[in-house]
Amino acid sequence: MNLSFFDQFTSPCLLGIPLILLSMLFPTLLLPSPGNRWVTNRLSTLQSWCIDLVTKQLMTPLNKNGHKWALIFTSLMIFLLSINLLGLLPYTFTPTTQLSMNMALAFPLWLATLLTGLRNQPSASLGHLLPEGTPTPLIPALILIETTSLLIRPLALGVRLTANLTAGHLLIQLISTATAALLSIMPAISILTSIVLLLLTILEVAVAMIQAYVFVLLLSLYLQENI
């Protein structure tokens, strides 16, 4: 029984082919198809408004040089948001519960922001490792601490997204299992747990949206330090 709780985090396969590849491509179906008109229907209008709102929120802290990253950040935000929300549907698999995938997204983008700072302003980027006015005896230890905190950023990005989504999915499965088990024994308690399950599902929808936004927002803040 304990192992079955974690079976939902195993990537399903068909004929030896991981279906995670198909699930990662599914959000592209939400993109509006080209036509003769700029706005084809109300869904396209809503999507355009949401994309514009997300782009403004992400680009506000950045200067003009950072606006070149608008397409990358907005696409990543929509990608993570779509996968997180689709993963809450029954009998679906959530790719963002896999640490390997989240690290594959976090590490290259973090490294790109770091290399951008080292190329454009190397003195300022390296200056973050040693704050001004640091006492001389503390310089070696402080450089080591700041370097460690810098290198741990991509790990923190990936682990944060994985842990929050994994914990939410486990709680939903545990409470739903308890609700089904108590239905024939104690119907009143089962009704109460089903209400808790409903509230938890609403909370997980909010967590899925917030975690996608936080992931991209932290990347934009890392970029802000290096431009």
Ends: how far apart?
51 Å
C-alpha Rg (nearest Å): 22 Å
Largest sheet: 2 strands, antiparallel
Low-confidence stretches: none
Tally the beta strands. 2
Overall shape: globular
Find the structural class using helix and strand composition. mainly alpha
Number of domains: 1
Q: What sequence of helices (H) and strands (E) makes up the elements?
A: HEEHHHHHHHH
Number of helical segments? 9
Helix content: 55-70%
Mean pLDDT: 82
Query: Beta-sheet strand percentage?
Result: under 5%
Order of strands across the widest beta sheet?
A: 1-2
InterPro entries: ATP_synth_F0_asu (IPR000568), ATP_synth_F0_asu_AS (IPR023011), ATP_synth_F0_asu_bact/mt (IPR045083), F0_ATP_A_sf (IPR035908)
Membrane topology: Multi-pass membrane protein
Subcellular location: Mitochondrion inner membrane
Main location: mitochondrion
Describe the protein's architecture and organization.
The protein is mainly alpha-helical and 227 residues long. It has one domain. 68% of the residues lie in helices and 2% in strands. It has nine helices and two strands. A hairpin with a 2-residue loop joins strand 1 and strand 2. The longest helix has 39 residues. It starts with a helix and ends with a helix. The mean pLDDT is 82. InterPro entries: ATP_synth_F0_asu, ATP_synth_F0_asu_AS, ATP_synth_F0_asu_bact/mt, F0_ATP_A_sf.
